[in-house]
Write a structure and sequence with these properties.
With about 325 residues, this protein is of the alpha+beta class. It has a domain of about 230 residues: DD-peptidase/beta-lactamase superfamily (Beta-lactamase), CATH 3.40.710. About 45% of the residues lie in helices and about 10% in strands. A hairpin with a 4-residue loop joins strand 3 and strand 4. The termini are close together. About 50% of the residues are buried.
């Protein structure tokens, strides 16, 4: 089949997927998150509540979109994935494991109880706030400004977009409501788990959470991980291949907050979510998936995002333990 015809079919299928999920699953939405305004309850949805986008990026560099794919939003907790990769490249696997574990917690992402693995005196994993505060601390830098410049530069290379930057309004909003993160930071510093100035480290952490991306950017970032650390659009290596495995492994077991077990059971691919409504999912060797929809479930994950990824996993046989029979694409009507 000619490449143009294949691309058209993918576009049609993606648009059909988008239309199927465009109707909100309102009965399962707990909150909405709106930049600069915090959380809205279901009966008072925020101004962002109708936003919805799906983007795909293949390891061949093809990109497909549906919906509000040019709308930007804060990475929030999705930034943890890339900070973990930077920490691994800076200190190596053994060095990072001394400071941050790889075990799921079963607790909420911002729970103070997860700040300390009492046996090993470290946060349980880098995909929750406590762990990400430590991996932020692990990144060597000459002051907060230099650290932020380096982080933004890495994010731009993952996305292939030199225009990515921190949204200062989002940063200010996060900083104003970050007492829990600050408490965790001081608690961890008392155990020697954070070495530098707490306020400086907290500011750097919140700023990388406030970097804005589109669903298209996020899909390319996911595809870079799917492609062994090489951006499939620019051809630039962003992360050493030996550390891609580590990042994807922790995403698979810990990336979806305390929904991670259900995600691994039902959907079965490495993923990371953020409370702004984004989900980044990686199909190793094949593609990156990004969904943006700010209606959140009780775990802080995008309701539409989970539904979209679940349907894609089922229809395309993407689950890591899918059988050969499940790996066949279900053809929509009208296509052979």
């Amino acid at each position: 089949m000619p490449a143009g015809a294949t691309h058209q079919i993918v576009h049609e299928r993606l648009e059909a997927l988008y239309q199927r999920h465009r109707k909100r699953h309102g009965d399962k939405i707990a909150t909405y998150y709106s930049p600069g305004a915090g959380y809205y309850k279901l009966d008072e949805p925020g101004p962002e509540h109708d936003r919805f986008a799906i983007s795909l990026a293949t390891t061949d560099g093809d990109i497909y979109h549906a919906g509000d794919h040019d709308h930007s939003f804060a990475l929030q907790s999705i930034s943890k994935v890339f900070i973990y990769g930077m920490a691994l490249e800076t200190h190596g696997r053994a060095g990072v494991l001394e400071r941050v574990g790889v075990e799921p917690t079963g607790d909420a992402f911002n729970s103070i109880s997860i700040a300390l693995d009492e046996r090993h005196k470290r946060p349980h994993n880098p995909m929750v706030n406590a762990g990400a505060l430590v991996t932020t601390d692990l990144i060597e830098h000459g002051g907060a400004g230099a650290g932020l410049e380096r982080i933004v530069g890495v994010m731009r290379r993952y996305a292939g977009n030199v225009d990515l930057k921190v949204n200062e309004d989002d940063y200010a909003s996060m900083l104003a409501s970050s007492d829990r993160n600050r408490a965790m930071s001081y608690l961890m510093r008392s155990f020697g788990m954070i070495s530098q100035n707490v306020e400086e480290n907290l500011a750097l952490y919140l700023r990388h959470c406030a970097i804005h991306v589109t669903s298209g950017d996020l899909a390319v970032m996911a595809a870079t991980l799917a492609n062994g650390g090489v951006n499939p659009v620019t051809g630039e290596r962003v992360l050493e291949s030996r550390y891609v495995r580590d990042v994807l492994s922790v995403m698979h077991t810990c990336g979806m907050y305390d929904f991670a077990g259900q995600w691994a059971y039902r959907i079965g691919i490495p993923a990371k979510s953020g409370v702004s409504g984004g989900i980044l999912a990686v199909v190793p060797g094949k593609l990156g998936i990004a969904v943006f929809s700010p209606g959140l479930d009780e775990y802080g994950n995008s309701v539409r995002g989970i539904k979209v990824c679940e349907e894609m996993s089922e229809r395309l046989g993407l689950h890591v333990f899918a059988t050969d029979e499940e790996n066949a694409l279900l053809e929509p009507a009208g296509h052979s």
